[in-house]
Structures are given as C-alpha cells and as structure tokens.
Write a structure and sequence with these properties.
The structure holds two protein chains of two kinds. Chain A is of the alpha+beta class. In chain A, 31% of the residues lie in helices and 13% in strands. In chain A, a hairpin with a 2-residue loop joins strand 5 (173-174) and strand 6 (177-178). Chain B contains 15 helices and 13 strands. An eight-stranded mixed β-sheet of chain B has the order 3-2-1-4-5-6-7-8, with helices on both faces. Chain B has a five-stranded mixed β-sheet with strand order 9-13-12-10-11. Classes of the chains: A alpha+beta, B alpha/beta. The interface between A and B is large, with 61 and 74 residues. Bound molecules: zinc ion (ZN).
Chain lengths: 185, 453
C-alpha cells in the first residue's frame, strides 16, 4: 500500500529518471476484443468485409452481402459498422448503405435486427451480426416492420412482394419510391 | 437569494484540522504496517501528494470539497462539461451566473476561495485529450464519473503504468491507485482499485447490466410509452428529416426539435408523459441524481483516498455499495481479480532475440508451454502487426512477417503486445485473447547502462 514516506522517496526518483519517453496510448479493451472478433471471422460465402480506413482502424468497416437464396438473389447490399469504444458492452451501430425495399430495413438504412439493440449481449460478436444480416435477406419477416408498406405486402401478397423486390433491385419505382439498380449485369 | 458574500465565515485554522490531526497522530490496530503517526503527516499530505479528480459534476463538486477539507492541498480536476441550469440544485459550487461556464474552472475557483492554502488546477477538456504522461504525476486518481466508457478509459490509463517483475509481482512504484465513486438515484458505490492487487474496473465489467434498448420496429410501429416516442424522434425521424446531419444532444435547438416531434407522435398514439426534461433524460440517458447520495458516496471516497495515501487505516476491501432507497443499507463486498485481465493482469513474459522476426515470434507462441497458441494474430498499441483473417487484412499485414519484432516495436526494450488465436485450455483448443510482455534479450541491460553513464 502507498504511504507518505514511500511517496517522498518516489518523488526524488521520478525527478532523477525523467528521461522523457512519452507513454504510449493503450489499446482499449473494446479494441482488443474487436481485434479478436475480426481475426476469428468466419464469413459465409455471400459476405465480404472491407476496411476503408486501412488495417489499423478495425472500429469502422463495411460488410457487403450478395444473398444466395431468397427474394434478394442478385442484389448487393453494403452495411456500415461503427463499433463504439464500449464494445462489447454496447453493440456496433449498423446501417444499410444501399437503399433497399425490405420490411425490416427502412429507407434511411435503419435495420431492425433484435441482436443489434434489445437482445445484444457482450458474448455475441461481429460474426453473429453478419449471420443475422444474412438471415434478413433469406427470411425477411413481416412481424418486425420498419418499412410498413413492404411488410404489409409481404404478409398479404408474397407474389406481389417478390415482384416489388425485383422491380426495386432492377432500379425502378415501388409506389412513390425510386430504388437504385443493383444488378451487375 | 443568497449571494456568496452572505455565506457563514469559514472556520479558522487550526480548528479546521483538529479532527484530521487526531486521525493522523494516533496509532491503532487497523493502521497500515508503515503508518508512522505524527502531526507532521498533514503537512506531508499537503506538500507531497497530488490528487486528480475526474469529473466536476454532482459527485466531483462533493469530492473536491471533501478532499480539500481532508488535508489534500494539491488537486487537479478535469471535466469537459459546462454548467447547465439544471445542475444547480445539487452541484452546490455553482451559481446562476455560472451557467455556461466550465464546471472544472468554476468548481476549482469556489473551493480555493473557501479553503485557504488549497491549490486546484482545472482542466476544461476531455480526458482523452490529455497525454498519458499527464496522468503519471498523480499519486492517486479519484473518479466522480457517470459513464462506463470514461471509467474504462481512466482505468486503462492508470493500469497502463503498472509493471510486473520477472516473477509476475507488481512493482510497487508503478502502482497508481484509484478510488471510484458512482451514484444512481438513491444508490451508490465507492470502490478502491489498486492495480495489481485489487480487481480493476475491467476485471468486473460484466457486472454492469446492459443498457435498455428498445427494438427499432417497436419505435416505428407500435409505440406504447413516452420513451418510445422520444426514441422514435431521436433515432428514426431525425435522420429522415435531416439526412447527413449529426444529432448533437448538447444543442438546445436539436433537443427542442426532438421534443416537439416526440410530442406530435405521442398525441397521434394517445400517449402521455412526453415533457422537455424527460426528452433530455431519455436522449442523454440521464439518471436522476440525488444530492444526499452524492454527498455520502463522496465522503466514502475521500476517506478511502486519505486512508490509501496516509496509511491511517485499512481501506475497504474493495467495493462498498450504498442503498438509501428503503432505509439505509451499506455493504462491502470483496471482488476478485480476473487473473487473465487484459488491462491489469501480468500477461505472459516472452523473451525474444532482437533478430527474431514476426513469423518466428508467431511460431514461438505455438511451442510456448504457457500458451500453446496456434494461428496467432498480433496487435501492438493500435497497430495490427499481423491478422490471420479476413483475407483483406492478412494481405495488408503479410509484409510484416519477415520484419524483426524489435523493429515493429520501434526498438523499445520491452513492450506489451496482444495476441488472438487458438490456445490450449484443459486439453481443448479454444479461441483466446492474451496479453504478452515482450522483452528483448540483452537490450534492457544495455539501455540501463546508458542512463547511468
Ligand atoms: Zn483487471
């Protein structure tokens, strides 16, 4: 334990060996945990990851999904991940950069995925989220709607929903909303 | 309204110090082994010890006053916030005319006016803005914070000074103790963190309950409470109406906009209870603060700081909780350290030749008896030296494999690196994140000789 006599001795020592090497910034526990998550990523075939700020900024990255089953085959959807300093106590902030006609993703790119908000637990990781996002494309659901109209169509008329998805991904209008063309060819 | 001039006169010296002198000049059964009771201790406390108080809010105001009245004369306080009119009910160092000014600056000035001989240096900035070296000058750091993030940051800085000897024992001169206070309504805690001896903040971080977050679809589709309406305006409506514009919770105009949108939505769904102050509370995640809880927790923290520094008594071991909700309940729990804690743990000592390359280092980890780690990815102070996956990062970091470690660690004789990989645990390979203390053979001695010449 500290005490004043020891502090007295220490102050003299500090003055003697102040050789001026600045202490380095430490990596935060959140950054370290993310380092582990990223190094252990096991991405499905449909998914690619990229780091726009280079190899030393893992806190901001993009995940690109090309669904291989379901309504959205042929599309290419980009999600931005922003990992907060309090990770994994807090979940990453995930937004869909690609405008998409989807019951669980609104036109501003907000994503309704339970593990991104109410069901996030520190034991979950980036891989879990990537699988969750893939699931949104293979199994969009009308029960957690963020795009109200799309959810209603999916529930009442799945064939029409499929046509709407195709029209949107081909770069056309669904109702009043215009969607960008996503097919590569 | 009372002006500062009408406040009662401060007690005269040495009356003010009568009780403190008694504590410091008497022996006892609970004192530290090195405690040498004598009236001179108070002067030493004043002349030798520098204390950093982190936060000048509800708890910080109390802490500065309590520490100044406990014989500490050299204090620093750091806070990036300015005074808001809503602070005045409990942050008792502030007056109406101070609204908009720096909390740290006003708090320092007020305590210095009232307690003669005390010097308080205010720092009106973020804790991250300070160089790490700034924090090394203090013998003790007292925390009056309201966020996990800020605590975690200060904890990692303070534990960053900690060094271990070759037997994995903490080196006493490198131990930077902290006293952490916290309050939430009628509940509070005071804990003593002696890095290397008692658990650090990160050792027990899992104890914090996760923040309540509402599902976005509930906000968008089926709001049921006032908080749902406010979070709808904050998380969904703001981006819809102001694409690309970042919401700033400290901007009154932004907050007013959220409030009026939330109110509209509440009316639409027949929900009551949306007020401006509740909007602020939800958006900024404000927990109602009770002045008396702050006072009690701060008193406990100041006392622990005095005990740590003077040795006049044993400190609590190591986590005091207070609950004033129904009667008064105080309990002390002894938390235990996480021996593998990445922040305060010793990590595994690895000795390297200066010529060893990164790929030789990774190979070495596979054979190291304490690690047996295969497929290691390596990171050092924010530089990813090598990543096994994903492919993009592996390609970017591959050129480092043939570079000597001493070069990658900038020629330092010793360094901390973190590795991720599959390590053996009870005969099973499990994914692990480990802290390593790398020491280069021969370099340490040479550099020591240099400084003595
Ligand atoms: Zn720890």
């Amino acid at each position: 334990m500290l005490n004043l006599i020891k502090i007295k001795g220490q102050k003299k020592e500090d003055a003697a060996n102040a050789n001026g090497k600045p202490a380095a910034k430490k990596q935060s526990p959140g950054e370290l945990r993310l380092h582990k998550d990223i190094a252990e990523l096991n991405l499905p075939k449909s998914t690619r990851i990229s780091f726009p700020n280079g190899k030393d900024d893992l806190m901001n990255f993009e995940v690109t999904i090309r669904p291989d089953e379901g309504y959205y085959v042929g599309g290419k959807f980009v999600f931005t991940f922003q990992v907060p300093p309090a990770y994994p106590h807090e979940p990453p902030k995930v937004k869909c950069k690609t405008k998409v006609y989807h019951p669980n993703i609104d036109l501003e790119g907000n994503v309704c995925l339970n593990i991104l908000r109410e069901d996030w637990k520190p034991v979950l990781n980036v891989n879990t989220i990537v699988y969750g996002l893939n699931l949104l494309f293979s199994q969009p659901n009308d029960e957690d709607p963020l795009n109200h109209e799309a959810a209603a169509v999916l529930r009442d008329n799945p064939e029409k929903f499929e046509r709407n998805v195709q029209r949107a991904m081909a770069g056309g209008y669904v109702g009043e909303t215009h969607f960008p063309r996503l097919f590569r060819r | 309204m009372a002006s500062p001039d009408e406040e009662p006169p401060a007690p005269t010296e040495p009356d003010r110090w009568k009780d403190l002198d008694m504590i410091l000049s008497r022996p006892g059964n609970l004192v530290d082994a090195n405690f040498d009771p004598n009236p001179g201790l108070r002067d030493m406390l004043g002349s030798l010890v520098e204390v950093l108080v982190v936060g000048a809010g509800g708890l910080g105001c109390e802490l500065l006053k309590d520490l100044a009245l406990s014989g500490f004369k050299n204090l620093h306080v750091i806070d990036m916030d300015t005074i808001d009119v809503s602070n005045l009910n409990r942050q008792f160092l502030f007056r109406v005319q101070d609204v908009g000014k720096s909390k740290a600056e006003v708090a320092a000035k007020r305590v210095m006016e009232r307690v003669s001989g005390v010097s308080i240096v205010p720092h009106f900035c973020r804790i991250e803005d300070k160089e790490i070296d700034f924090y090394s000058q203090f013998q003790i750091i007292v925390l009056g914070l309201d966020s996990i993030e800020a605590r975690s940051y200060i904890n990692s800085v303070a534990c960053g000074f900690l060094e271990y000897d070759t037997d994995d024992k903490p080196i006493p001169e490198t131990v930077k103790p902290m006293v952490d206070g916290g309050t939430e309504g009628f509940k509070g805690h005071a804990r003593v963190i002696i890095p290397g001896k008692t658990p650090c903040f990160e050792c027990n971080i899992w104890l914090f309950p996760p923040q309540v977050k509402f599902p976005l679809c509930t906000l968008a589709e089926t709001p049921r409470t006032a908080a749902h309406c406010i979070e709808y305006a904050h998380l969904i409506k703001w981006n819809e109406v102001h694409p690309g514009k970042t919401f700033d919770a400290d901007d009154a105009e932004h907050m007013q906009w959220i409030y009026s949108e939330a109110l509209k939505r509440a009316e639409l769904f027949g929900i009551s209870g949306v007020t401006y102050s509740f909007t602020q509370g939800v958006v900024k995640n404000i927990i109602p603060a009770i002045a008396s809880t702050n006072a009690i927790v701060s008193a406990a923290c100041a006392l622990e700081a005095l005990k740590l520094i003077s040795g006049c008594s044993k400190t609590v071991s190591n986590y005091l909780t207070y609950n004033g909700l129904d009667g008064t309940h105080i309990n002390v729990s002894e938390f235990v350290r996480d021996k593998d804690c990445l922040v305060c743990g010793p990590g595994t000592l690895i000795e390297l030749d200066t010529s060893s390359t990164l790929s030789e280092f990774i190979k070495m980890l596979e054979e190291h008896p304490k690690l047996l780690m295969s497929r290691a990815s390596v990171t050092h102070e924010g530089n990813n030296l090598y990543m096994q996956s994903p492919e993009v990062l592996e390609q970017m970091t591959r050129p480092n494999l043939i570079v000597p470690m001493s070069e990658l660690l900038h020629g330092a004789p010793r360094a901390t690196v973190h590795v991720t990989g599959m390590a053996e645990n009870n005969g099973r390979k499990v994914s692990s994140l480990r802290k390593l203390r790398v020491a280069f053979k021969g370099v340490d001695e040479a550099s020591k000789m240099d400084t003595t010449v």
